[in-house]
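Hi R.,

As promised on Friday, here is the backbone we talked about, encoded as structure tokens. Could you run it through your design pipeline when you get a chance and send me back a sequence?
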């Protein structure tokens, strides 16, 4: 069984606590999907003619070598294959990437290695091979437990196929999470209560529950603009959120972040590293990274078109488009943006150490309004605050 409790991540009672050194992670972006879902604005592409996977594999390995040259020796605490749909990657490619990561940077014992998977039968058949390659956690994109809804979301799997894939995942991986999208057009609170109860009965330690967002430039955005997609109003969205929090807490999977719920100790260590401002190297088209180089935190972004990315990496050794040193104010702002999403919130002394200005008058006003809570050195959003998180953060940032 994998080491489920990273040192410094949980205390003996399983309560998540902040870690002074969030570790070092590698993010691998696989940009291909079987079909483009109409709500999605991730860097994901459909290639009906297939891709030259051997060429892409070589490019990933080359880019990993480039990142190793930048970072120097670090101990890897987590790896995340995200997408797109990484479960469309041949297991050989996944194995080669993991092997190269381990050659470049030592992996800590029990390092968390997650792969995002779409739940079609073709992909579920590969789960055993991903496990053999070293993946020890999967995040399955179920999205809904209703066939009509899955069709409306443009998904290519049915509920039955999804549940079957989830069972296969549970057979092969110690740690399995799945994603659902809620607060969907025309969804009622009672329908979501039934669907979420079903989901909680299937959950194995971790669940990601996202409220549907309308992303600019997507087909859903066009439908929404034309009045053909009725989204829940603010009050209704709030009811969905509050009910979700309550049901998950009662089921023993409280939120540790706005959209992520886990049995204490089963939080995604990779996500926590992002939210706790750890360093991570991102490889693959459109990946982002945060690296401390020469003592300063840098934000890196990589070329997003997959074929252009492969060509450039194979020619020049990397396809980094931008690598910018973050100013003190930008680092503290990032900490505020990320940390306020967590149920444990931010450390005010760390925020100040990063150059952030702690505005006690604003904090007191937000506290009086019931939007934030202060506990010792920590500042966190209340349930009401999480519902208007962007404006809470804007007030705190001044
Ligand atoms: C990059 S997608 C990935 C995984 C995989 N390709 C899939 O679709 O199952 C990560 C998750 O983001 C969520 N997501 C994507 N677009 C969203 C949107 N517009 N609103 C809410 N959730 C969204 C979905 O739940 C999805 O599982
Ligand atoms: S939601 Fe997942 S499967 Fe759908 S287009 Fe986005 S990345 Fe691809």
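Update: got your reply. Pasting your designed sequence below so it's all in one thread:
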């Amino acid at each position: 069984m994998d080491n489920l409790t990273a040192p410094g991540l949980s205390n003996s009672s399983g309560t998540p606590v902040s870690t002074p050194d969030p570790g070092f992670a590698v993010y691998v972006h696989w940009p291909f999907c079987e079909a483009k879902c109409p709500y999605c604005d991730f860097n994901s592409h459909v290639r009906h003619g297939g891709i030259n996977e051997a060429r892409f594999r070589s490019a990933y390995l080359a880019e990993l070598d480039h990142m190793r040259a930048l970072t120097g020796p670090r101990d890897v605490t987590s790896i995340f294959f995200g997408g797109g749909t990484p479960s469309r990657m041949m297991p050989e490619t996944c194995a080669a990437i993991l092997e190269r990561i381990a050659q470049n940077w030592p992996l800590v014992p029990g390092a968390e290695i997650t792969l995002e998977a779409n739940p079609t039968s073709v992909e579920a058949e590969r789960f055993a091979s991903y496990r053999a390659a070293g993946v020890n956690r999967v995040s399955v994109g179920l999205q809904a437990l209703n066939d009509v809804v899955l069709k409306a979301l443009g998904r290519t799997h049915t509920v039955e196929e999804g549940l079957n894939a989830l069972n296969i995942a549970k057979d092969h991986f110690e740690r399995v999470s799945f994603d659902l999208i809620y607060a969907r057009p025309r969804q009622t609170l009672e329908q979501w209560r039934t669907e979420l109860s079903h989901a909680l009965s299937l959950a194995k330690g971790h669940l990601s529950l996202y409220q549907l967002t309308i992303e600019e430039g997507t087909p859903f955005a066009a439908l929404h603009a034309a009045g053909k997609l009725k989204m829940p109003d603010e009050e209704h969205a709030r009811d969905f959120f509050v009910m979700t929090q309550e049901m998950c807490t009662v089921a023993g999977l409280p939120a540790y972040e706005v959209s992520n719920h886990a049995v204490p100790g089963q939080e995604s260590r990779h996500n926590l590293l992002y939210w706790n401002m750890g360093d991570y190297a991102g490889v693959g088209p459109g990946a982002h990274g945060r690296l401390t180089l020469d003592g300063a935190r840098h934000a890196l972004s990589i070329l997003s078109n997959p074929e252009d990315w492969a060509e450039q990496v194979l020619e020049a050794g990397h396809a980094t488009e931008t690598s910018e040193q973050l100013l003190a104010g930008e680092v503290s702002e990032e900490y505020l943006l990320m940390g306020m999403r967590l149920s444990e919130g931010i450390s005010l002394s760390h925020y100040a150490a990063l150059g952030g200005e702690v505005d006690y008058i604003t904090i007191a006003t937000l506290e009086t309004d019931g939007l934030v809570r202060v506990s010792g050195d920590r500042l966190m959003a209340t349930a009401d605050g999480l519902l208007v998180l962007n404006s809470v953060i804007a007030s705190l940032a001044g």
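One thing I noticed while checking it: The CA atoms of residues 180 and 209 lie 5 Å apart.

Thanks again,
M.
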